[in-house]
Amino acid sequence: MPEVYRLAFLCAIIYVNVTCAPSPEEIVYPKLIEARGINETKLLHIKDGLTLTLEKLSVLPDSLVFTESNDGFAIETIVNGTELEQTLYQDREKMAAVDVKEINDSIQVMGVLNDKLRIAPLPLMARSEEGYLAHRIYEVEPSMNPEENDADNLPEQQARTKRRTRAASLEHIPDEFLVEVHVMVDEHHYTVFDRREDLVTYLALTIALVNMRYEDTTRPNIQFLLTSIQQEQGFAITFEEYDIGWPDAKRTYADASPTYNHLLE
Question: Which residues belong to the signal peptide in this entry (predicted)?
Fold first, then answer.
């Protein structure tokens, strides 16, 4: 039986004012290929040279708590996680996580194809001759500094302390545990989504990608479950900065430590 831990995550590091050249895009017409094999695994053909082997993912509880703040009052809604997960899939080999919905005799795909490519539907564009919906594939921008917290990049004293802490903790941990994740989302993020379900789906796919990166962990085996989401205005302390890996873009970031301190007041 896995032990359960809880984690609060701030989803407020959003690019509010980004000014940079648009990333290259490609128009594609995804289609599902007939299921094959004993497990009837679905194949999603995106384009020549890119086909996903789909398997169901599980990152949501049966009932997810969705909290919205309205004039100082918190309104809680229970979202059916089991129902939302019916259209969520992953491809572990390609590190992909997508939402695949059947729309008017075709399919609509949204999500992550690999570490660089994303896919989104183009509902206003004409269908292909075969009747498939148009989608765009686009590249995401490089992260600011993905290795800044690696032990190998820490000062030697901090790195030694971190390694000793890891070794000592191995004596007192279960074989596996489940991390229950509570996500706080600020207005710069949630206003992008037209429906509550779209935001839940987006965050669920994000958690699925996190789980893939933790699949090889042992003692313990770590998995994350998105159990609650909270929409909140004005909780993030922000600052503007140019991205080191994307110098043409000036972005607004959440300042983590002051934001946490502000929430604890």
Answer: 1-20
Q: Is residue 151 part of a domain?
A: no
Residue 54 lies in a domain: yes
**What mean pLDDT is predicted for residues 138-160?**
54
pLDDT of 243 above 70: no
Structure tokens at 130: 């075969």
Say what the pTM is: 0.77
Is 155 a domain residue?
A: no
Give the chain's domain count. Answer: 1
The Cα 46–Cα 186 span in angstroms is: 33
Q: Determine the Cα–Cα distance for residues 9 and 247; give it in Å rounded to an integer.
A: 27
Q: What is the pLDDT of residues 70-128, one digit of tens each?
A: 777 889 999 999 999 999 999 999 999 999 998 888 999 999 999 889 999 998 999 99
Determine contact, residues 204/53, Cβ cutoff 8 Å.
no
- Domain membership of residue 33 as a residue range: 3-140+173-264
Residue 120 forms part of a structural domain: yes
